[in-house]
Automatic annotation (TrEMBL):
InterPro entries: Cyt_c552 (IPR003321), Multihaem_cyt_sf (IPR036280). Its main location: other. This is nitrite reductase (cytochrome; ammonia-forming). Its EC number is 1.7.2.2. One of its GO terms (biological process) is anaerobic electron transport chain. GO terms for molecular function: heme binding; metal ion binding; nitrite reductase (cytochrome, ammonia-forming) activity. Gene3D superfamilies: Butyryl-CoA Dehydrogenase, subunit A, domain 3, Flavocytochrome C3, Chain A. It comes from Wenzhouxiangella limi. Keywords: Calcium, Heme, Iron, Metal-binding, Oxidoreductase, Signal. The keyword DNA damage does not apply. The lineage of its organism: Bacteria, Pseudomonadati, Pseudomonadota, Gammaproteobacteria, Chromatiales. It catalyses: 6 Fe(III)-[cytochrome c] + NH4(+) + 2 H2O = 6 Fe(II)-[cytochrome c] + nitrite + 8 H(+).
Length: 432
């Protein structure tokens, strides 16, 4: 954002954001003109198609998450032919350094670019990370299906420790995940989010009452409870990368493993979109203005009867800048908006890939010294600590699905910390 235009743009964005938030926060009322009366059972509410007669436009948007449009730095790819599934893009083939960085962990066996919500359950069922359904924890479906509400009602927290094979159903992410079954009001359905919020560690926003908490249910970093296998958010000490590393340092977490090449205890971060957007030592201007995830990813649209509704085709705002970005940045034009956004993404994309390769080179260099006895225990311990922290900071941005756009200042700051650590580690290796 240019400084000379900043103040005017900020005011426009604030007005747009507040107006949009007020609209999105209300219950959806358009549809086939039939008054929504709620569902008689959770069984009925878990099936998204049952909501269609009340909210056909929203249902159509949800269905279109199966047809994601590819963008320069993201998207789910394209179907090879009409009626075919969107292709799966294999990150391990695109970025070979991931096999080194994730060596010893399930992500080195299977790692694909995220597709639309329509495919959430399919993709977790087919993952190569944990192919044995009887050994895979049930928690793996926690963000993939409307059935979570039913499982919570029947089993409480006990279902998380069940085998995956015992809980796997056919309902992917849908209406019930974000809307109450009795009156369709926006609400989050995951109790682990309430537990995360109870820590009270947000620094930049007040999360309570925000519509986009429905996004925070799943678009956050997490691990599984050591006792119950339930999802836990790494928010006990804060939401920044440094605060979450402190959380991991307090106790060993389910997504930590001893890296076989260096012997370092490292952690696998899981897509902290909500944290990067709203929190950070560098404050994101869009969040600061009060804009929520829904303002850009769920813009207002008009149905066939001319009624306004909230779009439910969750995808990159760059595929519909006219209904989102242009409200504040019309002076840039649609091509200008896309070019500026992709410029921001491109710089983060280049840096995170470069540092990912540097991290892999560092890991292999430590492994070589370790294998031939060329490093003493004190120095090795220091190198392992550097590896742990550098990988944590790099992965925090690498797995965040906006390529830095959600908070580019914070993305660069965290990546710079990772690179500084890697350079320090290389200097230590050069000295032994």
């Amino acid at each position: 954002m240019r400084k000379e235009n900043g103040f005017v743009i900020l005011l426009i964005a604030l007005c747009l954001g507040l107006a949009t938030m007020a609209a999105v926060s209300s219950s959806p009322t358009n549809g086939d003109k039939e008054s929504f009366e709620g569902f008689d059972s959770l069984d009925e509410a878990t099936v998204t198609e049952n909501w269609k007669r009340y909210f056909p436009a929203q249902y159509d948007g949800w269905m279109r998450t199966s047809e994601m449009q590819e963008t320069t730095y993201g998207g789910g790819g394209k179907a090879e032919a009409e009626g075919m599934d969107v292709e799966k893009i294999n990150y391990l083939e695109m970025y070979p350094f991931l096999k080194v960085n994730y060596d010893g962990f399930a992500f080195s066996k299977g790692y694909y670019r995220s597709r639309g919500h329509y495919y959430a359950l399919t993709d977790i069922a087919d993952t190569e990370r944990l192919p044995d359904w009887d050994k895979r924890p049930a928690t793996c479906i926690g963000c993939k299906t409307t059935d979570v509400s039913k499982l919570d009602a029947i089993h409480g927290d006990d279902w998380y420790s069940m085998p995956f094979s015992k809980v796997m159903g056919s309902n992917t992410i849908g209406c019930l995940d974000c809307h109450a079954p009795d009156d369709a009001t926006v609400r989050h359905a995951r109790t682990w989010l309430d537990e995360g919020l109870a820590h009270g560690t947000f620094a930049n926003i007040e999360p309570e009452g925000r519509t986009d908490l429905v996004c925070a249910q799943c678009h956050t970093n997490y691990h599984f409870s050591a006792d119950t296998r339930k999802v836990e958010l790494a928010w006990t000490t804060g939401l920044t990368a440094e605060a979450q590393l402190e959380h991991y340092d307090a106790a060993r977490r389910s997504d930590e493993w001893v890296h076989p090449r260096t012997g370092a205890l490292v952690a696998k971060i899981q897509h902290p979109e909500y944290e990067l957007y709203h929190e950070g030592q560098e404050v994101n201007v869009h969040s600061m203005l009060g804009l929520q995830c829904t303002d850009c990813h769920m813009p207002k649209a008009t149905d066939a009867d001319g009624e306004k509704y909230t779009e439910h085709h969750w995808t990159s705002p760059l595929t519909h800048v006219e209904s989102t970005c242009m409200g504040c940045h019309s002076n840039w034009g649609t091509d200008g908006v896309v070019a500026r956004a992709e410029g921001v993404q491109g710089r983060v994309y280049e840096k995170q890939n470069r540092i990912g390769r540097e991290l892999a080179e560092f890991i292999d260099a430590v492994a070589a010294k370790r294998d031939n006895g060329g490093v003493d225990e004190v120095t090795l311990t220091r190198l392992q600590k550097i590896h742990r922290e550098a990988q944590f900071y790099w992965d925090f941005i690498w797995v965040e699905n906006s390529n830095g756009f959600h908070n580019w200042g914070e993305a660069h700051r965290v990546l710079d910390k990772a690179e500084t650590l890697i350079n320090e580690g290389m200097e230590v290796l050069d000295s032994v």
